[in-house]
What we know:
The chain has helices at residues 16-27, 77-89, 112-115, 132-148, 165-179, 191-196, 224-237, 271-279, 298-301, 332-352; strands at 8-11, 35-39, 47-50, 53-56, 58-59, 70-73, 93-96, 126-128, 150-159, 243-250, 257-265, 284-286, 307-314, 321-328. It is α/β, with parallel strands linked by helices and 353 residues long. The chain has two domains: 8-129 and 336-351, 3-Layer(aba) Sandwich (Rossmann fold); 134-160 and 210-328, Dihydrodipicolinate Reductase, domain 2 (2-Layer Sandwich), CATH 3.30.360.10. Bound molecules: 3-amino-D-alanine (2RA).
Amino acid sequence: MSTRLPTLAVVGATGAVGTVMLDILSTRENVWGEIRLVASPRSAGKLLTVRGEEVAVQALAPEVFDGVDVAMFDVPDEVSKEWAPVAAARGAVVVDNSGAFRMDDDVPLVVPEVNAEQVRNRPRGIISNPNCTTLSMIVAVGALHRAYGLTELVVSSYQAASGAGQQGIDTLYDQIAKVAADRTLGTRAGDVRAAVGELGPFPAPLALNVVPWAGSLKDDGWSSEELKVRNESRKILGLPDLRVSATCVRVPVVTTHSLAVHATFSTEVDADEARRLLASSPGVVVQDDPANAEFPTPADVVGTDPTWVGRIRRSLDDPRSLDLFLCGDNLRKGAALNTAQIAELLAAEFTAG
Length: 353
Ligand code: 2RA
């Protein structure tokens, strides 16, 4: 007896995350029948390669969801807000990578290594994928929480330009080209700003700089990105009262977000035990031998799937706290890969059922 493989739609197939998604769909085990590629009308007809075959992009319209079992959305919040319910009404389960539904009580926020069971709890037919900054740390933090019981997170992020999309990547490369030849830059206040010209999506120069800002301004000086780390960590871990303080910073890295994490638990912790525990956790790699310059950096982690963890230390002042440094590719696990993993859970459900 042959089983019909589910039909997948990839909405936003031409964007920065969509491009990584096509690569991921082409290299992971193939669990899909038809794959439909969908984008804005201006990309309609464009040919993209997925699973070694050229597929023509279709314009976003209600009918493209007819017969679709799972629809992945990698589009801006306002597009998801309008079109995810349309896809769900036409019978597709939506896996949405925007911020439109993440905090909706009727939409689960899923990281398969942490709360896979939530995939079935989807009254609106929509499942949300967390923000890339949360995703870059939560697999490792979730494993530590299961062992020790998390009570507080203090986090500083070092976020890559690609978190701001293709425009962020282009801006960083353009700025690097402008500053590369002048070895006097970075010695006088304002010289880098004058040299780079266009700031693109960033509020200050990114080349030769770090920028303590990502997202939009919210109450009391917090950024939307910092609130996402707090609210999403609480929801994914099922800890509505978790104490979380985040400072999100953009750094001149193309792709791969890093985070310095100070995590406090309800019991005393041991760094060697935490290292062993993390090393045996799915989706986590431990690289932690500073004597031999072994720790994760974005330049070495980019293009890989796991969360890389290093610099694991027990706090000198609190035996219940660990300090660690994490790196995760923000376009892979931070976006496309987690979406693909959620969709694969759905594919298994459809294929079994
Ligand atoms: C950023 N986390 O890095 C955002 C993208 N979703 O700007």
